[in-house]
Amino acid sequence: MYRLRLLVSLPLSVVVMVLSMFPPLQFPGWQWLVAALSLPVVTWGAWPFHRAALRTARHGSTTMDTLVSLGVAASTLWSLWALFFGGAGLIGMTMQMSFLPSSTHGHADIYFEGACMIVVFLLIGRSIEARTRLAAGDALRSLLEMSAKEAVLLTNDEAGSRVERKVPTTQLQVGDVVLVRPGEKVPTDGVVIEGASAVDSSLMTGESVPVDVTVGDEVIGGVINTWGSLTLRATAVGEDTALAHIGQMLAAAQADKAQVQRLADRVSGVFVPAVLVLSALTFIGWMVAGGSTQAAMTAAVAVLVVACPCALGLATPTALLVGSSRAAQLGIVVRSAPVLESTRRVDTMIFDKTGTLTDGRMGVVDAHFDGASEPSLWAKAASVEVLSEHPVGTAIVAAAGQKNIPPVPVEAFTAFAGNGVSAMLGSERLVVGKPSWLIDMGVELSPETSAFQANYEAAGATVVMMVSVPADADVPAATSEQTSPDASSAPHMASATTPSGAPSPLALPSEDSALVLPQIELKVEGMTCASCVRRVEKKLAKLDGVSASVNLATESALVTLDREWDPQAIVDVVDAAGFHATFMGLRDPRPSAPAVAASSNSDAAPAWDPHSLSAAGARVCAAFAVKDAIKPDARQAIAQVRDLGITPVLLTGDNERAARAVASELGIDRVYAQVTPADKHNLVRDLHNAGATVAMVGDGVNDAAALAQADLGMAMGSGTDVAQNVADIVLTTSRVSAAPLAVRISKKTLRIIQENLFWAFGYNVAMLPLAVMGLLNPMIAAAAMSASSVCVVVNSLRLRRIQPDA
Predict the structure, then answer these.
(1) Is residue 352 annotated as a catalytic residue, yes or no?
(2) Which domains does the chain have, with CATH numbers?
(3) Global pTM?
(4) What Pfam families does the record point to (predicted)?
């Protein structure tokens, strides 16, 4: 709206100003041309201000647009009067450029240029504001554009076969099953029920590294699937998705008015009527003092023009818009504008530990080996733990995978709930478990292993050890009572073989889980580039009912079936493509899948009695320290919190030892461990009652009450919906350093608002006395007023330069 009016009004106003200010260019009748060129500007160009003034006048109120409209109308009407009745319309009349109002040659001056410049400068300011709003909305629009427009919906036909159908994402319902191929956007929030891949969420959260996902993991709509095919069950669609919620919060925050803006609105409500009265009194005063009608009208018009609080109206909203936009670009969504103001008072910031300062996932931080080569021991540990569902076992398998060491098939897998696991690798029995469990069975630890355990347990890590039992050890078999309790926690993958050693055919699941499909894991050697990956996937995709996700980094493939296939046939296809495939095992992705026999070989070793290790010559060959790893940016975040003058506090439900270890590593002095959700809420309340202004950073349902109780609640984007819904600020990135960044952006935004208000009020205070005394030409008043508005907008745009690592 403003841009077109500006494009038309600007050239017309330039001609008007040049003719009015430079006498050598004033040809006979120039003033009538100026009047004709001015009329479109002061009517159509200024119509947004006239319309707003009329609208508010009908309700008996005034705004800054009232001053603009009256200033333009008064300048124009005075100039028309001067043309027709004041002698300014005489042919041959000239007018000199003057910074002060004057009367020349006995005729009244015309101020068409002043009226035009008021409109042009205001249109420039409003256009910049509109561009600022547009730029501020880029983050919101980019969020909305991230969503996929179509989805591949999976259904079953009458024969029970899977059918793919493309549908608009608007037609998806909760519970629908969708297929996401490599390179496609995830169409909606969901949970992975089949396949494995890595998703690129850089546009969503700023994370530069794709995040691995597999069966049971939740994914957010809008992220990009990188290399593997995923089958998802929709958990939220349409306006209920995380992406839509973020957009709604951002829009609400940008539309909200902060307390300082409400104050500015109240000031404008008093200021505008006062200026109207002052303008009238100025005219009366000049007339009573014996001044000419021209002088009185000039002073009164100048008062109207110079008092226009345009800059005051732009001071707060422009800064809030730019600040919230920049925050959104950096992964910080502010739910309401008043939050920015409350942030500056924060003096205590409480951090939940798990999932906030730490990754929330177990990872191997160190390993100690005694005996065989390191790679072979990694392979042995991973081969035993790949069949375990315990987080510690998952961490060991993942660490081996990062070293490109794949697991190998094992037999006679046995899980001992709460203690450890065991399996046969060839003729060697391997046991991985808790040190206390192994010691109780008579296993002796070397001094080096004992020191390793003591050091890492003191640092809050969990230590597990791998024991090798010689092949000739006489270990009696376990009874059914010893093995049956663990059947429910048996693995979902096993190396199924026939007595001849070949992979056995894989049976499909029952009809009640037809869309939860079994998978074959392969090791694929010989791949050197992405084209090799595509070649393997294409070759396997040609088989009826087969889809595959190939990972070049780990040289592995996950093959999903929707009909019965002999695994050896799958291996042969990969070999025929020019690569070497090795069958690693079968996986049933169902979370509650029944146990799969680790081996159907009749010669496989039986389960065993763990209480006889003391007589079996067992020895510890490896030890692993596993802990919930601290996020890479956590130390930087805590340092930034201290630099802001805020005291960091660690709050966790974990034990005291683990909490102190994390706090010591991060430099946090105040620690509260083993607290319940109610304790977290009460602690925040107690700190608040003691006079502290508390910010709480958390991610889970157990943090929700504390987030709501805190003066400022910040929820990690990787957290639960409950936490995000009660928080004041949502950190869409998993980086905890976004918390101090949010505080820094808020403080910077408030400082910019204060500077803007200074410019706005300072301009009015300085110029009004000059206008009342008749020392200010209306044109110069218009230029000064608009320049003040432009300064406010440009000052606000400085917020776009805020950097996360500044």
Answers:
(1) yes
(2) 2-138+254-319+749-801 (no CATH), 148-240 (2.70.150.10), 335-359+630-735 (3.40.50.1000), 361-490+603-629 (3.40.1110.10), 492-597 (3.30.70.100)
(3) 0.55
(4) E1-E2_ATPase, HMA, Hydrolase
